[in-house]
């Protein structure tokens, strides 16, 4: 009986230890930098036949490659739902989330953010011949609005504009709701500016801006709270790339 308990105790110590180790190092070992993203966010991250890293390509992938290089690590990419990124950073499943992620008060409760590396805003993607949506306020007139679950656009439409729940459609990817604008099921999609422009162009739709309603948003990289070693390394390299114009150069390649 006593032996049994001891054995159990030893087992649980081992279990705690290995969980602790895993949480500390991310999924990869020390020579890997694991980036989590949601690769349905052109031009920041998307999949293609021959990407920069396997099938993955985009501004964030190019930036993360530079970060990994500066740390002498191999970049590994984990693609997942945008909604799951913060939890994956917290549990150590990934080392960092690089996903065109906007710094938000609420997100700062669960992760730490790097310095901002890009500025964007929200836009409305509407039909090319649309004439009755000129401002964000116009969406309140019973318009059917699409957003992506958990994106900034979701909270703006839901909380700030307070659009009636029955008029909001939430999808997992921007393309899905934009498709609904194309086929007339939705009047508008509220989404990040660069992605909105890319999607509008591809689908013969147009983009409406409203600088008064939609504030500037800063994209940054999320790491686990207190992981100052990684955060410092990221910030140093980002700072250097912002100053040298490298980030702008990368962005140009994808716009
Ligand atoms: N900037 C927006 C946000 O932080 C959308 C980001 C979506 N990114 C992605 N990789 N799917 O909520």
Question: Could you describe the 3D structure shown?
Answer:
The protein is α/β, with parallel strands linked by helices and 255 residues long. It folds into two domains: 12-119 and 218-252, Periplasmic binding protein-like II (D-Maltodextrin-Binding Protein, domain 2), CATH 3.40.190.10; 122-208, D-Maltodextrin-Binding Protein, domain 2. It has eight helices and 14 strands. The strands form four sheets. Strands 4-1-5-14-6 form a five-stranded mixed β-sheet, sandwiched between helices. The protein has a five-stranded mixed β-sheet with strand order 10-9-11-8-12, with helices on both faces. A hairpin with an 8-residue loop joins β2 (46-47) and β3 (56-57). α2 (59-70) crosses α7 (228-244) and α5 packs across α6. The termini are far apart. The model is unreliable at 1-28 (pLDDT under 50). It binds arginine (ARG). Arginine binds next to loops.
């Amino acid at each position: 009986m006593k032996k049994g308990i001891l054995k159990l105790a030893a087992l649980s110590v081992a279990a705690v230890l290995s969980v602790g180790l895993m949480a500390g190092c991310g999924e990869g070992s020390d020579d890997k930098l694991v980036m989590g993203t949601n690769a349905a966010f052109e031009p920041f991250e998307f999949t293609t036949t021959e990407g920069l890293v396997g099938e993955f390509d985009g501004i964030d992938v190019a930036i993360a490659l530079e970060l990994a290089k500066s740390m002498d690590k191999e970049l590994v990419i984990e693609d997942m739902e945008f909604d799951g990124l913060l939890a994956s950073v917290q549990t150590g499943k990934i080392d960092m989330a690089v996903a065109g992620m906007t710094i938000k008060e609420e997100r700062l409760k669960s992760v730490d953010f790097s310095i901002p590396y890009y500025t964007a805003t929200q836009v409305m993607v509407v039909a090319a011949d649309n004439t009755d949506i000129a401002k964000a306020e116009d969406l309140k007139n019973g318009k059917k609005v699409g957003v992506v679950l958990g994106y900034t656009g979701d909270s703006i439409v839901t909380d700030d504009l307070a659009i009636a729940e029955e008029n909001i459609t939430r999808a997992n990817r921007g393309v899905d709701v934009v498709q609904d604008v194309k086929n007339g099921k939705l009047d508008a999609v509220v989404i990040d500016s660069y992605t909105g422009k890319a999607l509008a162009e591809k689908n013969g739709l147009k983009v409406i801006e409203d600088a008064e309603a939609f504030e500037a948003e800063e994209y940054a990289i999320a790491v686990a709270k207190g992981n100052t070693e990684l955060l410092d390394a990221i910030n140093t390299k980002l700072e250097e790339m912002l100053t040298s114009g490298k980030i702008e150069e990368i962005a140009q390649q994808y716009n």
